[in-house]
Amino acid sequence: MTQLSSTITNPSLKAWHTYVIGAQMLFVAFGALVLIPIITGLDPSIALFTAGLGTIVFTFITKGKVPVFLASSFAFVAPIQQSLAQFGYGATFCGMASVGIVYAILSAVILWRGINAVQKVLPAIVTGPVIMVIGLGLTPIASDMAVSFDSSGVFNGQAAILSAVTAGVAIAIALSKRRLLNLLPIIIAAGVGYFISIAFGVVDYTAVVEAPWIQLPWTSASEAGRFEMPVWSIGAILIFLPVAIVPAVEHVGDVLAIQSVTKQNYLENPGLHRTILGDGIATALAGLFGGPPNTTYSEVTGAVALTKAFSVTYMRIGAIVSILLAFSGKLSALLGTVPVPVMGGVMVIVFGMIAAVGLNTIVRAKVDFEDPKNYIVFAVIMVVGVGKLTWTFGGIELGGVGLAAILGIILNQILPSRPAAAADEK
């Protein structure tokens, strides 16, 4: 419990405080949680539902020991957009659900051989560039949305002002010395940009007025053309599976981060194999219900560190609130009124930060670029990924981040390393 709650003696007030802290965990994750479905064409209300459902499932699989919140993953923005364009919603939901297969395999490998076996296949020289490709590959989308109201990229002065102010607020919040503000750059920046949009007169509330207070998210999504039943598609599956290695590896880092905050050893109890399996099952369920793949949120880990709210109960409360909000037709319609350049301003920062995280992964691992092998692996991943090189096999396309990840893994395994001494002699 927090220091504040430990001083409260009134049982009802203490319970109220517990609910507030739980809802706060959702609030911290809310910005990114709803931004991802909005920019990919999925339904934000369904994303709220699947985030809540996934978090609850995760807490039970991990025996109620690991206080993390699961929600929409930025790693899958490009695959979702590519799959929707090629195969439609039903096939895309199948592809998203298949991500759970990768997590299940990694869980089994970790249980059998330990985490070192995974790290040998997915070292920093592979995962770092792949993360960079994810961020850099999305930059054209951010640029187009930042200067136009229809994502066309045709310059509009009002749109540019909105995106610039939104991005500026996000930067200011991220650099703030107040730790609580540091956890909320996306939602605060989007909020400021939204209020300025109202002043500009570019927000239309017609859909909000007409929307019912309570509505099944799948009903409204179907009416908007954003939901249909999952259908089998090997093409969509191949788009998603290679990308799944990135959030799976990041999951390990998030577990290490939360255990350093709570001073517990989650790698041993309940075990890393359980945490990654819980994440995978949550992601599979999300795809089947029409929500984006889930991932653990480092923002929530920061909130846990700040509030000392170590109990999984808080995460379950946040998850329940998320599920309840999913059934609000008014909220779903309101999220749809956020102007494109406001989202573009946020994405300029977010997508750039994703690329920076990939670079930091390489730096922290002290990857030796005196070894030509590492140069080659890095170069191939970057060019194939950013250039969106595509290979076609029997009518099935594999390209972009997925192809880059596969080639990176293969090259890292088959190319010989040059010993440091040999490099020096050269």
Question: What would the keywords be for this entry?
Answer:
two-stranded antiparallel sheet; mainly alpha; globular; disordered N terminus; 72% helix; 4 strands; two-stranded antiparallel ribbon; 426 residues
Give a brief description.
The protein is mostly helical.
Question: What would your notes on this structure say?
Answer:
- This is Uracil permease.
- Keywords: Membrane, Transmembrane, Transmembrane helix, Transport.
- This protein has 426 residues and is mainly alpha-helical.
- The protein is 72% helix and 3% strand.
- It is globular and about 65 Å long.
- It has helices spanning 11-40, 44-61, 77-87, 89-113, 115-121, 124-137, 139-146, 157-175, 179-182, 185-200, 206-210, 217-223, 234-240, 245-262, 267-289, 298-307, 312-326, 329-335, 340-364, 372-386, 400-414, 420-425, and strands at residues 70-72, 294-296, 390-393, 396-399.
- Strand 3 (390-393) and strand 4 form a beta hairpin.
- It has one domain.
- The longest helix is centred in the N-terminal third of the chain and has 30 residues, at 11-40.
Note the topology.
Blueprint (H helix, E strand, L loop, with lengths): L10 H30 L3 H18 L8 E3 L4 H11 L1 H25 L1 H7 L2 H14 L1 H8 L10 H19 L3 H4 L2 H16 L5 H5 L6 H7 L10 H7 L4 H18 L4 H23 L4 E3 L1 H10 L4 H15 L2 H7 L4 H25 L7 H15 L3 E4 L2 E4 H15 L5 H6 L1
Antiparallel strand pairs: 1-2, 3-4
